[in-house]
Each structure stands twice: as structure tokens, then as C-alpha cells.
Amino acid sequence: MTTARNRATDRIRRDRTLAAKTRLLEVPEATEDTMDESTFPDERLELVFTCCHPALATDAQVALTLRTLGGLTTPEIARAFLVPEPTLAQRLVRAKRKIRDAGIPYRVPPAELLPERLDGVLAVVYLVFNEGYAASSGDALIRKELCAEAIRLARLVVSLLPDEPEATALLALLLLHDARREARVGPGGELILIGDQDRSRWDAARIAEGQALVARTLEMRRPGPYQLQAAIAVLHDEAATPAETDWTQIAALYAALQRLTPSPVVELNWAAAVAMADGPAVGLAMMDGIAASGELDSYPYLHAARADLLRRLERWSEAETAYRRALELTSNGAERAFLEGRLAEVRSATRH
Fold this sequence. Notes:
By secondary structure, the chain is mainly alpha-helical. The protein has helices at 2-6, 11-25, 43-51, 58-68, 74-81, 85-102, 118-133, 144-160, 165-178, 204-220, 225-237, 247-260, 264-278, 280-293, 300-312, 316-328, 333-351. The model is unreliable at 1-5, 8-12 and 18-38 (pLDDT under 50).
């Protein structure tokens, strides 16, 4: 990654970097790209597009690129994909084997083929940001360098493909989330939920830019999942107080997102929004259905969300059990401290 980031434009170093990345990916031969250097404004982005080859399944493209170029570890990527670490490791092995056996050339695609690789590239950028915004391990909640790198890459993708609404929407989404970054952490590094944040610390310039980008995507009239997520982020960011948040509209957008790209994580977020709009009992019923399916049993945020609703319903014993399960699955120090505080709260309520 250091070489990819810092190499100069002279031909010798260009060839050395290409050879190094080729060996890393176990590709049998490399074909030097002949694309005009002005096409790609950044070496890292060029390599991401190169790795996201359409011959690989999107999940394999994304996992391999995150591991090779994104600076994420196998456990971090496994967490992003909600799979056990050995399963993710096997996916990486299979992807590399397919590259080798099929003789997939390691080269930058021509400009007209960039859109077919866009889904994988956007997923890579989004997952890098997510690992930065809510670090899966360590003591710090946020890894600012990953957030900044993801936003930088998202800007470059938009400059490369300005007529792709999903690329523009992803940039908007990252900016709208990043605008709240400083308010998410207290003086001691503690986690602060959005409803308790000091909104004067939100970055107004980033919010305004994100809103403008969302408006631009609407004009393109080609809706997609990143656009729906960005619209949800706009509703959060434009609320001057927690009480002014339009949870009914947020729930409706999550419902639309679930229809477009069904996923248990999207369904969980939808249930959380419904809990805010229609009451914790309604949201809990949805979450209980998700929990019963077993798909998110190892996902700490499901158990933490259920625990919160059980706490709000004063079902203390059940809340304690759910908080314990969330703690078992959480590695980040700031998130663990938050959950431990909530667990102590419900224990105290149980005793009284």
C-alpha cells in the first residue's frame, strides 16, 4: 500500500509496483496497461478498479481488494461480511485460485468497462469507511485515517464517473455520516448515541455538501441502494433536535431499501426505525423475527438493539441477557464500555 500510494510517475517504479502487486495476487502474468494516465487520477483507485474483475463474484472482488489494498485484516473483513473468519479466509483462497487457474490478467480496464466494475469498487470504499467509522476492534471507536481515505477515494470515483448516481450517492452518504463523527465520541473516548449528541458539533459544511449531492442524484432518475441510504442520512442530519427526526419517513425508506436489496442488516435498521416511529414493542416484534431466523446470531448490533428496546419496555431480565450476548460479540473498547454501562443499569433495575 505504501508503494502504491507513494510511487512516482517514472516508468521504472511503475513497473516495479505492478510486478509486486501481481505477485501478491498470485496472477500468472501481468499485462501493462496502456490507458492514458490522465484517466485515473490516483494510483490506489486504479488498483481497486483493477482488482474488481467481473469474472469474480462481487463478494470475492470486494474481500480480495479489501485484504490486498484496503489495509483491512481478515477478521475485520469477516465482520463486514457477517461470516466466520475461516469462511472468509477460504473465499480469499478460492478467489486467488480462480485468478490463477483462469489466467485472469492483472490490468486496468479500459474506460468503457469501468461501470461494470463500479459495484465492487463502491462496496470496497463503503466497507473501508465503515471500519473507520465504527472500528471492529481496538480501544478507539473511530479510525479517522480510514474515514478520510474512503472519502478521498469516493471523491475520485465521482470525478471519474460523474454520471453514475450511485457513486455520487455513496460520496454523499459518507459525508453525511462523517459530519457527525466528532460528536459521536465524548472527552474520554466514550460512545455517544445520535440522540444524545451535541448537534452543534456536527460539520455543517459536510452536511450541506451531502445534501447537494443527494439532490443531484435525484435529477438523474436512476434510484439505487446508496441513494436510499443517503436520503436516510439527510433526514438524520437535517433534524435540529432528536425529537424533530422524521422516523416515519426513515422507516419508509428502509422498507424501500429492504425491497431493493433484501438483507437482515437492512431489516434490523428498518425495525429500529419502526421502534422509534411506532413504539418499542412494534420494533421488538420485528427484531424477534430476525433473531429467530438465526442469520444475525453473531452480529452484536442485533443483540444490542433488542436489549435497548427491552430496556425501554422495562423487561429488565431479558434486557440483561441481550446485553450480555452483545458484549460477548463486541471487540471494540468504546462499544464494550457503553454496553457494560447499560448492563449495569438494567442489573440495578432488576434488583429494585
